[in-house]
Design brief:
With about 350 residues, the protein is of the alpha/beta class. It is built from nine helices and 20 strands. The strands form four sheets. It has a 13-stranded mixed β-sheet with strand order 2-1-6-5-7-8-9-10-11-15-14-13-12. Helix 8 links the parallel strand 19 and strand 20. The protein is globular and about 70 Å long.
């Protein structure tokens, strides 16, 4: 399969009249991007993409190039991103999110600039862009310059309530995305700011809305099942517990792998973490550990080099006074760790971090 190079495509300000030209340029610019583009423009009908490994061992999967093109077209249609759209790529091209930024630019004829995929990608940026994609940590570290982006999608992790609150006063149109490598990035979008009409104190009342041609339902575990022939050949069974709002909308509750059964009560860590994010500045997560009475008890693990009893007591008191948590959602213990174990895409590996805590 020989993919066409859109006539309007530009990379770092440079135009190209042939595939050979772009390959020659990218080879000097980035070996990782060169390898992907070489693969993309080859006659093979698929590319091999590595999953992030946030819920298990990273694995290689084959994605059809035509499905990736379909995904790019869907994103362009949803956000009305036409040829000559200016885009900033600050995600690693090793994973699907970075690869798809390139595919969108190549397919739709964008003018894309690439910067280092570090935690503060806008640090040296002064130019305005129509579109970009980031992970939550990058957004948190770029709030003073986010206004340079017209539209921003956030993926690769949960957007905390605290971060959502900060986004309300920013001019950028910000959206959370739902998807995975198997669905070639996002198949659903949730608006995070610029709501019309009166909004309550919580900005999480918006729900994920699926992209066109996506069918959703839940299985016996209450986990999301989705089908979109444009981006996936098979029905995708996820481990994401959701509440269906309509045929095209759902509320994400958390990963079934992380659900804690404590004294017969099901607790969803991600929803609890959303509320705790208003109190805790450091990275953290809640999880369950074995308990003789409850079966599993809820604990809070904070990434901090301190374990001062006064701070622990203060934090525990603040959590108990948090009205948005039920008595079952209040952690029974608080632990501190110097550094969490994470994936290559900076996601916390909860199980491995917990194992380290138990040592």
């Amino acid at each position: 399969m020989q993919n066409n190079l859109h006539k309007d495509f530009k990379l770092n300000g440079f135009s190209f009249t042939s595939v050979d030209e772009i390959l020659s340029y990218s080879k000097d610019f980035s070996e990782e991007i060169y390898q992907f583009l070489q693969d993309w423009f080859s006659k093979k009908e698929y590319v091999i993409v590595q999953t992030s490994g946030s819920t298990g061992t990273p694995k290689d999967i084959q994605l059809l190039k035509q499905k990736m093109i379909n995904s790019a077209l869907a994103t362009g249609q949803f956000f009305n991103l036409k040829p000559k759209t200016t885009a900033l790529m600050c995600l690693p091209s090793k994973y699907i999110a970075g690869k798809m930024m390139l595919v969108r630019a190549l397919t739709l004829g964008w003018h894309i600039d690439i910067v280092s995929s570090n935690a503060s990608p806008l640090k040296t940026i002064s130019k305005k862009y129509d579109f970009s994609a980031m992970v939550p940590l990058q957004v948190e570290n770029s709030l003073d310059k986010i206004h340079l982006l017209e539209t921003l999608i956030i993926g690769g992790g949960v957007v905390s309530k605290k971060l959502q609150d900060k986004l309300q006063s920013i001019s950028t149109n910000v959206f959370a995305t739902y998807g995975m490598t198997e669905t070639i990035t996002h198949i659903a979008i949730k608006k995070l700011n610029h709501f019309k009409g009166a909004i309550s104190n919580s900005v999480t009342i918006a729900y994920y809305k699926t992209l066109p041609n996506t069918t959703i339902y839940i299985d016996q575990r209450n986990c999301l099942v989705l089908k979109n022939n444009n981006v996936a050949n098979e029905i995708v069974f996820t481990n994401d517990v959701v509440q269906l709002i309509s045929d095209t909308q759902f509320e994400w509750l958390g990963r079934i792998d992380n659900v804690i059964n404590s004294g017969g009560i099901k607790l969803y860590p991600e929803k609890i973490e959303e509320q705790l994010s208003t109190l805790i500045k450091q990275r953290f997560f809640v999880t369950g550990i074995e308990d003789e009475l409850l079966g599993n008890k809820l604990i809070l693990v904070v990434e901090a080099p301190i374990d001062h009893q006064l701070y622990k007591n203060k934090l525990f008191s603040e959590i108990q006074n948090l009205r948005t948590l039920s008595k079952f959602e209040i952690p029974k213990e608080i632990y501190f760790m110097d550094q969490f174990i994470e994936t290559g895409t900076k996601k916390i590996q909860r199980n491995k971090t917990l194992e380290l805590l138990k040592r």
